[in-house]
Amino acid sequence: MDSESTMKAFAKLVASFSLLLATLAMPARADTGQFLLLRNVSILDLDGDEAVLTSGMSILIWDGKITTIATTEEIEPDTATRVIEGDGRIVMAGLVDMHVHIWDRASLGAYLAHGVTTVRNASGMPLHLRLASQIEKGMLAGPRLLTSGPILNSPGPNQQINHQFVTTAEEARAAVRSQHEQGYRHLKVHSNLTREAYEAVLDEAAILDMTVMGHTPEGVRQKGMPVEMPFQIAFEEILDDGLVTIEHVESIVWHGLRDRHDEAAARELAKRIAAANVPVDATLLAFYNLLRVAETNGEYLGREGTGLMSPLLVATSQAEYDRWSNEDVPRNRAAFEFYKLMTKYLSEEGVLLVAGSDAGIFTNVPGMSLIDELELLEEAGLDRTQVLRAATINPAIALGEEASAGRVAEGHRADLILLDDDPTKDLASLRSVSAVVAGGDFHDRAALDAMLVTAAEHDIGRTQANLVEALKAQGTDPAALGL
């Protein structure tokens, strides 16, 4: 036997021994205890500045985690292992949507069917705490679900019926404590918050070890803001407040630039955000879909996929649909082009960008909207590796999970997608996911298609009950709102 053959044989022996040790070290599972092996796949590594694709690999999964990654010839599964033949398909980390609004469990499958294996819900209800637990325990198929509590806001022009309203420090502290007692560990703040309430939210969150994300609070909106007079809370004050992410690039332009479309000022603002090390969730799609409704005089509202939107949400959004169907197209197109430029500057100056779609509201369709967002990030000027990182590694970094999520690596969560084509060549390949591994559970294309069917089967009564329960939990009388 020559030296090269000897080395290969030795490597195979080491891999087999490592696999045996891993098997012996693991406790018996409550179910079948079955290993899952993705055999003969090409692994897409997005960890460096340039994406790297390595073919001829196999990935062994157990109990929701990746236990072993080796060449295909180095892993010989036993008869108890479930083997999925990859046939050279590409495996990459599952996608993360950092800004969604889930109204009912029906929509969960729409995310998985589009390769989204983690979502961060940005407007919490008791429903979400239950769903997150059921998904984590394997009782329900769906993406890993992270959620904020109910949105904390003060009365003002951006208020919505599902917001939890606080004005004073005392009200804000009580609201944060209540959310913590209910089981929430993440808070979302909104733009109308008074200074007193916002500062109390931050202080109470620190005491209870809760994270904060959201729109940057501006204080009480007064006539003439922002052009004739500054906001009560300056954007710069927010930058050292420890927000996990700042949401919406249009909100950054509105608050941080006082809605001035000034390129030089935008570049300087991007530098200050980067220096403060605050991640940004651009959600370009949130404004883009508004623009598309205006450009098509409302026809865009009936495009393919909108059957996945909650009918209750659609029914309550009619006034907004009517408004945007008749909006000024040139003015809003110019605004969107500036939002893309702002996003480009944020990227170029080193701001950590994460991908969020704002799915579940207006006409932002669950699941597919994240792919739309990624394509808009590329349109804004990010290269494809940067775009893919925004939906994989960057969210893990922003959430403090880089040691356990966001990559195809041993010890990481087994949240993976299988693709027929390379997304670094064309992001459109993300629109035809071949299979998904979510928390270690394998779902082939037939199963994913079935999830899409279920996601379109809405239960309006159940959705309304979810909202009523949420309003009662935050001290709001649903009957006063006609629910």
TrEMBL record:
Alphabetically ordered keywords of this record: Signal
Annotated ranges, domain Amidohydrolase-related: 90-440
Pfam families (alphabetical): Amidohydro_1
Signal peptide extent: 1-30
Entry annotated with the keyword Transit peptide: no
Record protein name field: Amidohydrolase family protein
Taxonomy of the source species: Bacteria, Pseudomonadati, Pseudomonadota, Alphaproteobacteria, Sphingomonadales
